[in-house]
Amino acid sequence: MYKEYGENSCRTYDIKFGDKSFKYHLYNDFENFTERLFDLDDIDSFVILSDENIGRIYGRSIVNRIRKNYRCELIIFDCTEKSKNLTVLQELIEKVISLKATRRTCIIGLGGGICGNMAGMVAALLFRGIKFIHIPTSLMAISDSVLSLKQAINSEYGKNLIGVFHTPEMVITSTQFLKSLPKKEIISGLCETIKNALTILPESIEPLTGMLNDDCRYTWDNYRYFIEMSIKAKTQVMKNDAFEKKGALILEYGHTIGHAIELADAGAITHGEAIGLGMLCAAEISHMLGHLSEKDVKIHRTLLEKAGAPTVIAENINPDTIVSILKYDNKRGYTPVEEGTVYMVLLDTIGKTFNDSLLTAVPMELVRQAINRMYRE
């Protein structure tokens, strides 16, 4: 699955999605962290995009290392769901151009999933596409968002409705980034790990259950397990579906309602926490339709509770707002639209979906019932 270099200092994974491929370098430290950047051809400069916190902690150090070999600049921007829009994207592109970027400039996204998406969009659009690299620093980004070709921003109507497919040159990260990660962000990343277990790797549920704890006390071996599990899940379903239109749609489990909850809460809830709630809603809907057993629904709840994730929707989130956002879900169009329904990925049993198309038309009234139940469970 991977090649190991040095004394456990770096593990390198070959990520292949269809005919697209890139290297994923997972370090245990920062000592030789930037050496992989210099493997690239036809690059004469770098521009790093980062948020204020990560940029302050790591940005300047990485810039100084790169400047030993190349010209490098650092751009700090407000990295939130609210700023993940066309206006901020244009501002970033103009800023990169002002720094004398050329077609031989490589963009680096240093931070969490939002930062990676913005960096990917800048690289995809500037000069009709230039090289970019992910340096993810959150568990969510390290184990989920960078393992994709999708780069996207939000519309006022919904999450990730504006985007492109653009392949990174490589991913470089380190488990050391997780050392200072807030508990809430660790939980967020684990919710996607749980999703992978429920949908693709049910055999990992037992060991995962044994590792999860609501204190978020994990060893480096635990983190490597979470990361490698996610790499295995993603490559398994995307090896013949790089653009996530067929079998890889399973990765959208929990995302239909989860994205709506995330937007309805205006960023107060993390992406992973919202997806966790979305999975519980999806499990409840499947159970109401006579498919997922009570035991399987309980497995959802047990895993999320052990990880410390919320299992009820906050009272401040209006259920009507959630339902309204659902109407603009980014999976619309994969199947013919049926009035009064929303298409969702639903499980028949743990590790098995309803049908080969993966998407099931669910009456909006049933969706509303499931959402309402999530306020009082």
UniProtKB/TrEMBL annotation:
Its cofactor is Co(2+); NAD(+). InterPro entries: Dehydroquinate_synthase, DHQ_synth_fam, DHQS/DOIS_N, DHQS_C. GO terms for molecular function: 3-dehydroquinate synthase activity; metal ion binding. It comes from the Bacteria. Residues 189-331 form the 3-dehydroquinate synthase C-terminal domain. GO terms for biological process: aromatic amino acid family biosynthetic process. Residues 77-187 form the 3-dehydroquinate synthase N-terminal domain. Keywords: Cobalt, Lyase, Metal-binding, NAD. Pfam families: DHQ_synthase, DHQS_C. Gene3D superfamilies: 3.40.50.1970, Dehydroquinate synthase-like - alpha domain. This is 3-dehydroquinate synthase.
